[in-house]
Amino acid sequence: MTRLLLVRHGETAWNAEGRLQGQAQVELSDRGLEQARALAPLVRSLGPASAVSSDLRRAVQTVEALGFPDARLDPGLRELGLGQWEGRTSAELQASEPEAYAAWRGGRSVPPGGESGEALVARVQAALEDALRSPSPVLVVTHGGIVAAAIELLVGLDKRKLVPVGPASLTVLDVPDGETRLDGLGGAKLHSYNVTAPR
Predict the structure, then answer these.
(1) 158 pLDDT exceeds 90?
(2) pLDDT, position 146
(3) Which residues neighbour 39 within 8 Å (Cβ) at sequence distance 6 or greater?
(4) pTM of the model
(5) Could you give all domains of the chain from N- to C-terminal order, each with its CATH number?
(6) For residue 156, what pLDDT is reported?
(7) Among 40, 70, 107, 191, which residue carries the largest CB count within 10 Å?
(8) Does residue 73 come out as left (phi exceeding 0), alpha (psi in the -120 to 50 range) or beta?
(9) What is the percent of the chain with per-residue pLDDT over 90, rounded to a whole number?
(10) Residue 124 in contact with residue 76, Cβ under 8 Å?
(11) Does the active-site annotation cover 79?
């Protein structure tokens, strides 16, 4: 059994402002660093044998704060690319482009210059396949959209129906050894979801 320890990065100033981050290089806020440090004892207690992280700055800062500065960086674990919408707030988009924003939230369109859901799933699948070849437990530090995509791929739960994971949260999945079916039908189990340290 391979245990995946999926951690969403800590809070950024853009999170607090309701700005869409996508693949923008946004740093953790002071609060985000505190959140990651608070989660570190729980993560360490689970004994990660290997660690991999998105290469976006907020994820790298989180994996470092968790105590794994030598984690392998994988661009396949980046958040969904939002193109021209990165840096804009949901409120702005609802006011200026309500139909396009609603269609995107409903999974029916892609922001201008953004990444499709299909492209996201393909790269997350490849990144998870790599992670599952690493010594277990595997710490994977990434983004909320990637955690949701991983659950959909491994457990079969529709990512659009999941409550979004919070900043510096831990989700644990157990994947049978040798599992190659990342279609939600391969027997992976969701062990824990959206666990945060006491704040």
Answers:
(1) no
(2) 95
(3) 7, 66, 168, 169, 170, 196, 197
(4) 0.92
(5) 2-82+116-195 (3.40.50.1240)
(6) 85
(7) 40
(8) beta
(9) 76
(10) yes
(11) yes
**CA 60 to each of CA 7, 38, 95, 142, 189: distance values in angstroms, whole numbers, following the listed order:** 12, 16, 33, 9, 27
Catalytic residue among 11, 79, 115, 152: 79
> What SS3 class is residue 120?
helix
How far is it, in rounded angstroms, from Cα 8 to Cα 79? 10
Instruction: Take residue 115 and report the two structure tokens written for it.
Output: 């990444």
Contact 152, 159 (CB under 8 A): yes
**Of the ranges 62-76, 103-117, 151-165, the best mean pLDDT one:** 62-76
Residue 195 DSSP SS3: strand
Quick: pLDDT tens for 11-41.
999 998 999 999 999 999 999 999 999 999 9
What gap in Å lies between CA 3 and CA 11, rounded to an integer? 25
Residue pair 182/125 in contact by the 8 Å Cβ criterion:
yes
Q: What are φ and ψ of residue 124, in 5° steps?
A: -65, -40
